[in-house]
Amino acid sequence: MTHKYSRIPFSASKTLQFTLLSLCALCLIFLASPVNAEPSGQLAYAVNGFDENLGRFDWNLYATALKGTKDFTAIPLNHKGMYPSWGPNGDLLYFIQRDKGHSDIYSINPDNPKNKKLVTPASGTYRFLSVSPNGRQLAFNGYTINQLPQENQIWVLDIETGEMEVMTQVPHAGWPYSFWGISWSPNGRRLAFSLSRPGWLEHLYLLDVETKEIEVLTELNKDFYPVWAPGGDRILFLRWNREFETFCTIDINTKEIVPLFDVDKATGYWGDWSPEGDYIAYSRWGSVYLYDFATDETQEIVEVDGSIFVISWLRDIRILPVEAQQKLVTTWSDIKREATQQ
Fold first, then answer.
1. Second CATH level (architecture) for the domain 40-172+262-341
2. Per residue in 120-148, pLDDT tens?
């Protein structure tokens, strides 16, 4: 039995070849183009307001899940506290709680937040907590109950042994210098921090954890709340201006500063990077916003009755239950215009 194969006409063959080549080119372009993925993970933050479950007005801990829904809400963790910082695996959330005039660092398992564990061996006055990338150490600033406020320094605490080591020797000259944020580098070798200096300026510094050597990162400005980018090449921070404050990034190697957007003074208190570094979460009064680097747009995702301070973003490991919450989309230009009008 003989099978006859009909040949495709030359013109049709060329058309088919062109179509296939076009499809291949489109596939290559699609694969090469960056995909702006939806933000995922969990946010933990402190809210200054009345907690119905705790029955008191204080700084209280909340969390928000960012995956599996377009509607976000604040989930109370039923603990008063500030400066939340996730452990790398998401099974522990560290925070500072102040009680009876002193503060301590605690940890909770967010799946069972009633199981609170004391971490610091001695009470004191502590602020600005940051967990090391390997989850074995905590960095914070402050002074113990046996010290004077003028002895405010940066400490590193070994979680397993409970030993606290002072990392800085800032001369106080009779009055306490204030630290304004601490953040651990992704490789765990350095700490970024802000420190007030004479003249009411806040400068950014880098501290080598091993050698304790300090490098000046910015000068002659009021720069505070540094947060290290996941890639380790940049740091997010706030720069004070007379009429508003500006979120900026600084390149660690070149020290080039890139302004991102402006916020009202004393309202954009704190920001944190998404685990992939393509978004920033920050607070503005009683709302949490997401800034998208790809679109230069800002999205309000959570609104609470109170004010929000310190946000910690955890990679998507587990999901908290969520409820419907209205959201609002605005742009960088809208926020800048609002800031300049106030």
1. 6 Propeller (2.120)
2. 999 999 999 999 999 999 999 999 999 98
